[in-house]
Every structure is written in structure tokens, then in C-alpha cells.
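Below is how a single chain appears once it has passed through the pipeline. First comes the sequence as given, then the structure the pipeline wrote out for it. We keep one example in the README because the format questions we get most often are answered faster by looking than by reading.
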Amino acid sequence: MSLITRIQSWGDHHHPKWLDYFRIALGVTLIWKGIAFALNLHAFTNLMNQVSIGTATSISFGAHLIIVLHIIGGLLITIGSRTRISCLLNIPILIGAVFFVNMRDDIFRPYAELWLSYFVLLGLICFLIEGDGILSIEYEKNKTFKAGNGQSII
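Resulting structure:
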């Protein structure tokens, strides 16, 4: 049994219900930050005006990728579908937010973004291991379509 299969199996069997509410809140937070990021693209526009065309294209692609991954990944995490892959795709963005973007700000100022980014990163790592949980679309789908030996019951 591979390490990933063992982690998935452990996460599927040790999942309290309150953790599902935390997963839903995490997904809504990612959607909210994706929309907020999309509404503040003027900062990237100012940055792109100061650099060459190749760098500006990279900045634009990265910004749009962050928006798409946050909104779609947050939606999938909220409803409990493909939670692990959504977390895996959002973790590099949050690592960048924690260590490169928000670290230079004063972390003790009111409403510092570093703490939110830190807790979202920890939540993503948690659900990368834990998976969907009971309150999810995947749980209902697996409960309906699978018997104990993996055969379809329909």
C-alpha cells in the first residue's frame, strides 16, 4: 500500500463532522479572496506598465491563474468535490502569499493579511490529508455507488 493510499484511507476513517464546517468556511474564504483579488487587478496593471512585455504577460497570466484557482478550487472545497486536488493546487499560491507577499507587511497591524493567509494554508494542508468528509458530494456519491468490495451496487 503506497503512502498516499494510506494517508487517504486514514483521512477517510478519522474525520469528525465539525471539520466539514471548517472545510466549507475555508472554501468560502478562498472564493472571497479570489473575487477580492479580481476586483483589485489595478495594482497589477500599474506593475505591468513598468516592465517589459514578457514580464507583463507572465504577471497577467499568474494573476488570472490565481483568480481561477481560488474561485473554482474554493467552490470545489466548499461542496466537497475533488477536495484534495483543489487543496494541492492552491497550496503553492498560499505559500507565496505567506512567505513572499504578506511577510513584508507589519504582522502586528490590525487586520494583517499574514494571519489569514497562514490559517488558510494550514487548512489546505489539513484537507489535503483529511479529504472531503461526511458533508460532501463525494461522500454521498461513494456511499451510493460503492459496496464494501468496490463493486457497484446499482
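The longest helix spans residues 53-79.

See the next section for the split statistics.
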